[in-house]
Structures
1.
Amino acid sequence: MRRGSTSTVRYRRAMMLLASAGGNTVPVIAQLVQADQDTVRDVIHRFNEIGLACLDPRWAGGRPRLLTPDDEDFVIQTATTRPRKLGQPFTRWSLRKLVAYLRKVHGRVIRIGREALRTLLARRGVTFQRTKTWKESTGPDRDTKLDRIEHVIEHFPDRTFAFDEFGPLGIRPTSGSCWAEQSRPDRVPATYHRTHGVSYFHGCYSIGDVSVGHQPPPQRHEQHPHGPEVDPGRRPDGAPIYVILDNLSAHKGAKIRRWAKNNKVELCFTPTQASWANPIEAHFGPLRQFTLANSHHPNHTVQTRELHRYLRWRNANARHPDVLAAQRRERARIRSEKGIRWGGRPLTLAAA
């Protein structure tokens, strides 16, 4: 029993048997192994019945389970249901309120203590969290537009582009985060007079080659990046081009629609109040994090130059771990804030 690693229970039982074989009385053995005398007697009697198999005690299962698997599922379902839906006059559960409700629920009485309930919820992955808002499209053609966007992304990525505006961009010191000596954070100056106005950054995301382009911010329909003076026009093979964009009125000007019709460009608009469906949204977060946060640009010219510098680096390192990690974080943020799992395309839509 001393060889190798073994349980203390087996070792103590072996000492009891060895001492008993040496002619020691039960009180002496109990004092030797620091056990109760009844325990020593039980071990000796068990040895006389089954031999050395008594070294492995067959522990009882303890008190029978009070909750069946179906009862546990019911508890989890109740805990994750808003109390008002169950006729209760409050907006969230506490452990006390949930225990009291489970004991008097109609047709099913579940008796469970607060600590057992807390342990059950933790084991099932149910934690106490803050409520977050989410946005849902109210447009009547929501499913049709989402189906179309998903279809062109999956089947025509080489000729699908996502376009959107980013802003407003002001000239002001912006706090952020960076590596610094402990207790000596990097600081940016404060500002009181902001006379530079605001601008907007316009980006275009190529789905096929995962590159992000940019255009100067327009002021009128005639200067919009979808105009013929900045967009390439027809493809040499005559295949249509798809552009995903939101429902901003500047995207629906007569000149833009006429140019799109003449150049075989299909404008795929996102549903109302669902700009999250535009794939370029996931790239604006890293753009804000690595160029605007922790910055103090003196004017719009410098700010725009820094944005363009980052985009050139990002397009040259599209598979850089930092770029991919930032995209994953931004997709997770969009999923949590918008309530829709679109980033990384885990969302399953109906067939177009």
2.
Amino acid sequence: MSNIERDPTELRCGTSGHGDHVPKVDVLSARDVPLGGPRAMTVRRTLPQRARTLIGAWCFVDHYGPDDVADTDGMDVAPHPHTGLQTVSWLFSGEIEHRDSMGSHALVRPGELNLMTGGHGISHSEVSTTRTTILHGVQLWVALPEEHRHTGRDFQNYVPSPVRVDGAEVRVFLGTLAGDTSPVRTFTPLLGAELILEPRSTTTLDIDTGFEHGLLVDRGDVRIAGTILHAAELGYVGTGSGTLTLANETDTDARVVLLGGTPFEEQIVMWWNFIGRSHEEIEEARQAWVEGSRFGEVHGYDGDRLPAPALPSVALKPRGGCAELG
């Protein structure tokens, strides 16, 4: 998806956690953001924000639906560029047609991971299909580390099998959880999983002590490490804990997405759909999109590509040492 907040912000990398072994949960509320140009849809964004900018290498958490496409016209995101990041598409319901400048033409379906690597540069479009009645899911972005941020374009699809644990069903689309490991390659250690929690259940998961984690609640009221999270909220837990306990406080199934990773400690500049290391890199990427170079062409989309917004009047500066936005 394309980030078209009215004033695309310059972002800093997040901290590695609280530095102790007692889970402390920071609750991050969502804000509404329009995506996709003139035919924009609205998403709930919990990452990045002023209180926290990354969780591991996860740098965007966008959550949308359930939307009746008869009322909202669904998703129609025109071709747009990415560099220095990966996009992770995960649906709960509906179907999205993906096209990119590698020539990939794929359908995003519920329970299937679609991961696109931008690397040096890629462009893509996303359109909900005519078979879609209710559109509901998450769109996630991952920052690429210095060593791999100019890697080649790539597109992967993976369908994880559900795994049963006490009180929950787990689908691991990236990394390892509940004894299951995704085969999908990542460039930094990451975790991504959907969990369906049974009514009034409690589930304890073994987690990597070197990871920081974020729990996004799609539906239900879920207690994480003693802190209650409501629908559309994201709970952050720092490094140092070897287990994570989730309790569904409702009488129906709850659904959550668990994200994690080792703290991302590099200095970055993130603006619009680009992640770089300096203002000059961002400017070069924007100019390449304006000129129609570097990112390739998306064939088969009916319409014009998204124009690049204007750069801010002040230079974008890399932020380092994983300092939070103040």
3.
Amino acid sequence: MNASPSHRPHPAEWTETQSLLPSAERDLPAGRHQFHKEQMMARIHEDLRTPSRTSGTSPVAPVKRSNPFLRRAVLLPAAAFALAGAVVGGLALTGGADDGRTALATGPALTTRIGAADAKGAPQLLERISLAAADTSAPAPRRGQYIYIASKVADTYVKTVGDKSEVVSDELHSRQVWNSIDGRDGWLIEAGATSDKGITLKGDTPFTGAYNALAELPTDPDTLLRRIYRESDAVRDPEVPRDQAAFVAIGDLLFESYPPAEVGAALYKAAAKIPGVVAVNDAVDATGRHGVAIARESDGERTEWIFDKKTLQFLGQRIVVVKATAGDPLKVGTVTHTSAITERAVVDANKQLPGQVS
């Protein structure tokens, strides 16, 4: 059986999934892969919205999410995450040999040098990032347009076949996402997860990171942060610290989304008010670009938002193991998830590439 963090249950979920997973997977330290699993769940939110978009699965009612802070697994209840695993092809849970992730597992663990963290420097850096986000000439999308985001992503995880486990990494691969501004239509193309032509994201439940949803958020940082805490507290796994859940929720709104400038600026100012947030002097995105980072550590892993050192433009995210845990095969310096935004644009039609004439 092939297992990845996107399908490894948190201890709170074992009652729903323990019959489906080998005991070796359940022996991993509690919570270690929670936030890496979170990143993976962000990449399959489409499957939760429309049950028919992945072939070979039984129809399952989509999980409804109406606010932009419900960040997939880290905030969803245990039963919802168990449902999510079943919707995504059923391959990792049932040991299907055609799991696209198997083909992508091409090498040893991704590792990195861990940058130095500075708690005192975080507020100043976030203030500068906020000012840079507010000073933008990016066009506001119009009704009928789509947000296009291209990225490079890769993951490191524990793969178990029979009684043998090993730490492997995905091949760095491309991901392209289109989302309508109302969040009800879109398209996804990702190597190892979809065919070359991709899959539809059309569904009755709107994508919670859609432009229209973000545009309705408060721009006062204190008001915004209170809302983030309130919404995430209502649904987060109780084993996930509330400050980390809030940090992760903001990070989700920064990656595959296109927030209005004033909302983006407010999100950074809100993040500065979360306890435990630090500045990191050096971090590397999935394409090798070095930058500074805003980060927060939880359960031995540090989630980092990476920014260009000069322009302070958002580059990507990564999750790095920064503390060793007895019995955990993922060692200090392991990069369990890495991503890089390579292009972000407003286009006139679904599946249209920037620069193409519709």
4.
Amino acid sequence: MRKLILLFILLLLPTGCEKGYEKYELKVFDAFDTVTSIIIYERDENEANKKLLKLKEKYLELHRQFDRYNNYENVNNVKTINDNAGIKSVKVSEELYHLLEKSVYYNETISDKVNILIGPVVDYWGEYRDLYNTGHSKDEVIKKLGSAIPQEEDLIKFKSLVDLDKLVLNEEDKSVFLKEKGMELDVGACAKGYAVELLCQYGRDELEIASGMVSAGGNVKTIGEPVTKDYYKIAIQNPENIEDESKDPYITVLNIKDNSVVTSGDYQRYFTYENQRYCHIIDPESFMVADKFRSVSVIEEDSLLCDYLSTALFLMDYEDGLKLCEDLKVDAIWFFQNGEIKSTQGARQMMEGVK
């Protein structure tokens, strides 16, 4: 799964534990196109390791369901749906059905800046990114694809393929049908957030984990409170200082608990053409890449909503995004192209050292 993004978020965790608790961590390298850290606090090492393995198994299961690039035996996933576009409906798991249903609901009620049928457009831009990032020249790209960068007349052909009215969700049997051949679901704007949300729910409700967190690239969700402090400290990286170790690597440090932080940015997956950066986040109306911000971080309890909003806000004007946050009562931090940082009042209150 390629949530083609994101800012790396550094987890600043307590180094010592009280009441007999210790920190236990497991890393997952083969899910959602990122390295995921699963951290829990437990008194017993054997019990902790058992829980971590169960969490990993659950996380990999969700990855297989939400994957649009690979098929798996006995799994109907996003790729299965795409493979059957214009052919037949596909029965899917409760988790995948809910992800699609919720994404459509958010599109209709919160913001239409995220469209889970954007797959063909993402893939088209991806062809250019792959060529430029493997050293191909402008002339070579033009020879292979017909233009140096995607042109409006080339992009317009995808209009019929991103019509959400052509996505049929059947609640009764949890089936999904794409009406037109060539349609492609891409749930990269929300799948990882939903997987992290489900994983934390599973850890808390089924495994009785009282304290921990999951960090999947730019998606972080905490479970309960840290065992030694009042808050978890989540540092959000400064996209301009990634390669310069002499500069402050972070925009800010947030103090949070029982909450999610999701960041979308322009510097994990992009290509450069004539000194302009073309990132992976694409406007579903114009089919052009976003260029308003370097990053947008959203803080909200529900990691799925966080993930959706981080992409939506990245594509919206700041004033419209701020109004949306106020209406939804969620918090956000915007890092502009010129280095300016703006945030909601609630986010400022979470920032360490900021009044």
